[in-house]
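S1.2 Input.
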Amino acid sequence: MFDTHVNLHGEPFADDLEDVLDRAREAGVRRFLAICDRFDNFEEVLSIAESNDDIWCSAGVHPHHAKDFVDLTAKALIEAASNDKVIAIGETGLDFHYGYSTEEDQVASLRKHIHVARETGLPVILHTREADDLMADILEEEYQKGAFLPLLHCYTGGAELAQRALALGAYVSVSGILSFKSASEVRSVIADVPMDRIILETDCPYLAPVPVRGRRNEPAYLQYVADALANLKGLPTDEVKRITDENAMRLFSKVTGS
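S1.3 Output.
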């Protein structure tokens, strides 16, 4: 399995990161994508990736922090992306639930990340919350300027955004939310996403899946995300693991140099 979204830097795993990674490897996780949430954390995230043969990372700024990096240049992101360990741009996106950054700053940051994804050929990891219509509009607008590869990460949005993004060649990642009893709407949307466009993630340390909900999430629990997707799609879990791993390797082609 490929855990395509892990938040390994900072306090949550500071005391036992090696044990966490060992448990994940024992559970069948063979690759990890460590996410950069703030560009001033990039070196720390990159260091984790460079210290492990099976970990890669992204470069970018989460929409919550867009206000703190208005002066970040596309050139700086492109330079970071030139490192062999950097296989994706982001995560970026729009989050109007908390409003930690203004809409103006979030949109400007999102467009900058999409430009970098287009220039580098790397997928752009998209976080969307309470912003489906604007996100879909921006993706379609930007795609007219030149193709890029969107990834709707930890997807909990509506069917319309999912389908509009899929029409642009997007991939969709599912997390432990898929297993939550309350997530019937999410399951309904994911049921209509083709299997060849779905990948798995834990988004650890957040969103631990059933049956470990309430604990600190960790990559070893990716198994339960695979189980939830298998149950939804009516497929054996091993088949889900195979398909989603192939999808992830196709999406993050820099891992293999293909």
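S1.4 Remarks. The domain at 2-244 is CATH 3.20.20.140 (TIM Barrel).
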